[in-house]
Specification:
Length: about 450
């Protein structure tokens, strides 16, 4: 059989024009934004790879669902469609809509968190960590060792290190661990998948110690597709069946629908424990809204339900995973260091190896991000010392283990020629990497400084 080009599995019915800028304009615009792409106006960006969250293109059926949404305060038919779809995929008994992922986290951890509590995960996403730490509890990461090395190729670099996990449970005491989490795919670790076997092994440990297992399911369909491609025994199973098996090991799910539900806003908390569900719903009413809309409009619930059906389409997932891989392969073959293999939703450039002469204190990732924008109008995000750097008591930077630049690919938004353009710009920046400069921070907020920090170029 000849292998043909994997095409975008959709036709384009509505378009949004891109506003073009030139390099001189962008040099000024990024300077005015304090060299922080978060502070740019989005219409000054040509290709926006800041995030895959809430940036999906909705389908004609989702837009039809938007018109069809039932806006009843209580008992909306759109809620029941949403509930039925989430239940079909996750098998959970209690489905609680929230306005996005972190709202589900906020509610869950407000109830189970608190001082003296510990929450293990493969790698906590920053909002999950923040919601845990906000309650006084501790968030701990146990990704497998290979997941920390960008240049090592492995099929499931998002896996949890079960030996470390068990050691941790024994050390901290099972009574102090209200739940254990697995994030699929592992966003902060390069969008790398978790294997079914690993989920099973984590579950076994959790059962042994009586600890509930939760899945952060933002990118569950991408993870399930990787299992289909890479794990023995799954190639003939449907992605829905794989997802169902994965969730069958879980006691609860948090989800940002802004990723794999292909919508611009939405999320949910899904649980099996009736008492916990009751406590969560009570808090939901205070913070989000009535349990049948939870911070969303009826039309949003309709779009989420439709998106959750569409994301399981294997033509879609083949195109999705392949288009991210395509970008990764092309730049890698030209020598650009990335986290290997390419992840499900994003390519992560290894800024330490890209710019070995710029030390972490001068933010090599930020330097690449600024150059990608200036050179080609591409917006990416630094995931390194700007985002996660801390200071010691002498004010010296404590850098995180990796200096990365994330190029997150919005779902169904860009075509192959957009990605070809991105590749050309990255290669141009790579060719001129010796000319790149470091930066220093001139303003920073006390928390989550990457959103609002301002920078100055060093000479
Ligand atoms: N968990 C994971 C793994 C995430 O990637 C995100 C969001 C959340 C939870 C929170 O969901 O944004 O709906 O409140 N990630 C986005 C990103 C913001 O750019 O990676 P949310």
């Amino acid at each position: 059989m000849t292998t043909r080009t994997i095409i975008e599995p959709f036709k384009i019915k509505s378009v949004e024009p891109i506003r073009f800028t030139n390099k001189e304009e962008r040099t000024e615009l990024i300077k005015k934004a304090g060299y922080n792409p978060f502070l740019l106006h989005a219409d000054d960006v040509l290709i926006d790879l800041l995030t895959d969250s809430g940036t999906s293109a909705m389908s004609s059926k989702q837009w039809a669902g938007i018109m069809d949404g039932d806006e009843s305060y209580a008992g909306s038919k759109s809620f029941y469609r949403f509930e039925e779809t989430v239940r079909k995929i996750t098998g959970m008994k209690f489905i609680i809509p929230t306005h996005q992922g972190r709202a589900a986290e906020k509610i869950l951890f407000s109830i189970v968190g608190g001082k003296g509590k510990y929450f293990p995960n493969n790698t906590h996403f920053d909002t999950t960590r923040a919601n845990i730490e906000f309650t006084g509890a501790e968030a701990d990461d146990f990704v497998v060792e290979v997941g920390k090395h960008s240049e090592i190729r492995a099929d499931f670099k998002g896996n949890m290190d079960v030996i470390l996990l068990e050691k941790f449970i024994k050390e901290k005491g099972k009574e102090n661990i209200p739940l254990c989490m697995i994030t699929v795919t592992n966003n902060s670790g390069g969008g790398q998948p978790v294997s079914m076997q690993n989920v099973r092994e984590v579950k076994e440990i959790c059962v042994q110690y009586g600890i509930p297992l939760f899945i952060d399911a933002c990118r569950f369909a991408e993870n399930a597709y990787f299992i289909k491609l890479r794990e023995k025994g799954y190639s003939n199973k449907s992605v829905l069946e794989i997802a169902q098996e994965m969730f069958s090991y879980a006691d609860g799910v948090t989800m940002s629908a802004k990723k794999d539900a292909l919508v611009n806003i939405g999320g949910f908390l899904a649980l099996n424990d009736e008492n916990l569900a009751m406590l969560c719903r009570n808090l939901l009413i205070v913070t989000e809204g009535f349990p049948t809309y939870g911070g969303l409009a009826g039309r949003d619930l309709e779009a989420v339900a439709q998106g959750l059906e569409e994301v399981l389409d294997e033509h879609y997932l083949q195109y999705r995973i392949r288009s991210v891989e395509y970008l990764g392969e092309r730049i890698l073959s030209a020598g650009v260091p990335i986290i290997e293999p390419p992840g499900g939703h994003a390519i992560y450039i290894d800024a330490k190896r890209f710019l070995p002469n710029i030390p972490p204190e001068q933010f090599p990732g930020q330097s690449i991000v600024i150059e990608l924008y200036t050179e080609g109008g591409i917006r990416a995000v630094e995931i390194g010392s700007v985002m996660f750097g801390k200071y010691d008591n002498k004010g010296k930077l404590i850098p995180p283990p990796m200096e990365l630049v994330r190029l997150a690919i919005p779902r169904r938004v860009y075509t192959q020629s957009h990605i070809d353009y991105v590749i050309e710009v990255i290669l141009e920046v790579f060719k001129n990497r010796d000319k790149l400069k470091g930066y220093k921070i001139t303003y920073e907020a006390p928390m989550l400084r990457h959103f609002t920090a301002r920078f100055e170029k060093l000479n």
